């Protein structure tokens, strides 16, 4: 019988949890909507229920640790979180609360973008690549960096946060309070909001990114322009990050990236337009191979492969 890491992935629209075997295989997975309540405890409840459920599935003594990736910012060393897209949680003591649920094993926390990068590097599209950037384009835009084969999370745990790189000094407001961030133009909600403001006639009262992609594929000009803006904004952030970090690969996942037929052509065109230096022309951009499991697999690796992935910038209780 296998041992497992219990992995948790906390985002603005959903909370996922899984039992991940020591080889990175996802054995059991559960998903719940993120509670939209202003009460921190109501937001915590589905997380606690998922963890309790999977502990019971695993059986006594078979969970060797808990790894969690969360939307950020995260706060070290205490392991609390203040996700931009979960307003009820401000310095919520996530690490301590998880340790109370699963006592006696290591509990480790990193940003969700870092966990996606770790997952793709450990078992996905980044295997064998020493230097990469992983980006998750969904409700928000997160990112994580691998350099020399190891996670680079920075002293606060927030390195790689490409969603809040400014690519337009006079751009639209971002949920973080700034202007012109990548997230303000490239996240699913921001794309939908822009398309509606430009005149897109949505088919439903509360359209999603899926509705926007469907409209783009049928030729709607506003929907197509929303994807073009998103791709070019991401490209500006990617080229700037690659120029600083000398990257060889970028891996892009998340719900918006699932529409890669719409997102990638303008993104690659803009990278070629702006990445003129020789070393930038070697950069490859690909879709994430682990899909929506990347963050969970990466969170598990914080426990299962700590020598590469659980160093500086990862909160830990052991």
Automatic annotation (TrEMBL):
Residues annotated as transmembrane: none
Protein's recorded name: Sugar kinase
InterPro entries per UniProt: ATPase_NBD, ROK, ROK_cs
Upper taxonomic lineage: Bacteria, Bacillati, Actinomycetota, Actinomycetes, Streptosporangiales
Short name of one Pfam family: ROK
Family of this protein: Belongs to the ROK (NagC/XylR) family.
Keyword Nucleus: no
Keywords: Kinase, Transferase
Key word Protease present: no
Gene Ontology MF terms in the entry: kinase activity
């Amino acid at each position: 019988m296998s041992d497992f890491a219990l992995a948790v992935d906390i985002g603005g629209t959903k909370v996922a949890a899984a039992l991940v075997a020591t080889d990175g295989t996802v054995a059991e997975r559960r998903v719940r909507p993120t509670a939209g309540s202003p009460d921190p405890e109501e937001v915590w409840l589905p997380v606690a229920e998922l963890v309790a459920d999977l502990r019971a599935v695993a059986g006594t003594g078979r969970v060797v640790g808990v790894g969690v990736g969360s939307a950020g910012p995260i706060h070290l060393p205490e392991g609390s979180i203040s996700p931009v897209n979960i307003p009820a949680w401000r310095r919520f003591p996530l690490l301590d609360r998880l340790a109370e649920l699963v006592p006696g094993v290591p509990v480790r926390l990193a940003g969700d973008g870092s966990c996606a990068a770790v997952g793709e590097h450990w078992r996905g599209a980044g295997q064998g690549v020493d230097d990469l950037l992983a980006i998750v384009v969904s409700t928000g835009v997160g990112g994580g960096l691998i350099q020399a084969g190891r996670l680079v999370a920075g002293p606060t745990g927030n390195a790689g946060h490409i969603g809040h790189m400014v690519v337009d000094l006079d751009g639209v407001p971002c949920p973080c309070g700034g202007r012109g961030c990548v997230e303000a133009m490239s996240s699913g909600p921001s794309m939908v909001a822009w398309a509606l403001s430009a005149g897109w006639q949505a088919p439903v009262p509360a359209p999603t990114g899926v509705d926007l992609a469907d409209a783009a594929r049928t030729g709607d000009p506003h929907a197509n322009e929303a994807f073009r803006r998103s791709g070019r904004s991401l490209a500006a952030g990617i080229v700037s990050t690659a120029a600083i970090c000398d990257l060889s690969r970028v891996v892009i996942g998340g719900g918006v990236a699932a529409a890669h037929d719409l997102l990638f052509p303008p993104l690659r065109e803009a990278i070629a337009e702006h990445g003129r230096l020789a070393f930038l022309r070697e950069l490859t951009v690909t879709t994430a191979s682990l899909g929506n499991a990347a963050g969970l697999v990466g969170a598990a690796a914080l426990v299962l492969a700590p020598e590469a992935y659980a160093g500086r910038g990862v909160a830990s209780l052991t």
